Amino acid sequence: MLETGTKAPEFSLPDQNGDIHTLGEYAGKKVILYFYPKDNTSGCTKQACGFTQLQPQFTEKGAVIIGISKDSVASHKRFEEKQNLSITLLSDPELEAIQAYDVWKEKKSGGKVSMGVIRTTYLIDENGIIIRAYDKVKAADNPQQMLDELQISD
Q1: Which of 58, 62, 85, 132 is the one with CA 20 to 30 A from 154?
Q2: What would you measure as the largest C-alpha separation in the chain, in angstroms?
Q3: Apex CA 104: angle with CA 133 and CA 20, to 5°?
Q4: Contact present, 75 and 98 (Cβ < 8 Å)
Q5: Across 103-109, average pLDDT
């Protein structure tokens, strides 16, 4: 996980519609950048739906919400449509941003060890500096937690 106070790494990734997004295009806004393991799984669905429900409050505070996983653009599109999501989901199958943000880690499940995305959320300020970093977040609680963080950091 990257430390607070560090410059957030730039990225250039396609969203669920195939449009390219970069961190730089959000200069002047706060960015909630969250990394999640997989589309259409229980925790990831709760997290994405929670961010969608609270999106008006984030927008009111001048913040954008971006989710990143290694799923494909097509998978993100199906996830968006199935869950009626209104947030930006970026596809990172080459693990460029996932590794740059240090969220690709060893995971243990059922006694076997594999590499995967550790659910992590960053709050990035208007100048591209990480001001909060949370790893091993609780998916269902994370959207409200980040909204509370925005109110504290205002």
Answers
A1: 85
A2: 45
A3: 80
A4: no
A5: 90
Q: What is the chain's percent helix, strand, coil content, to nearest 5?
A: 35, 30, 35
Neighbouring C-alpha atoms within 13 Å toward the C-beta of 3: 2
Determine the Cα–Cα distance for residues 104 and 35; give it in Å rounded to an integer. Answer: 10
**Is 44 assigned a catalytic role?**
yes
Give the gyration radius of the chain's Cα atoms: 14
The answer on pLDDT for 131 being more than 90 is yes
Tokens read off for 141: 């609680």
Contacts of 25 (CB under 8 A, 6+ apart): none
What integer pLDDT is reported at residue 152 of this predicted model? 78
Of 8, 33, 44, 87, which residue is the catalytic one?
44
Beta bridge pairs of residue 68: 35, 90
Are 27 and 109 in contact by the 8 Å Cβ rule? The answer is: no
pLDDT, tens digit, 9 for 90 and up, residues 47-75? 999 999 999 999 999 999 999 999 999 99
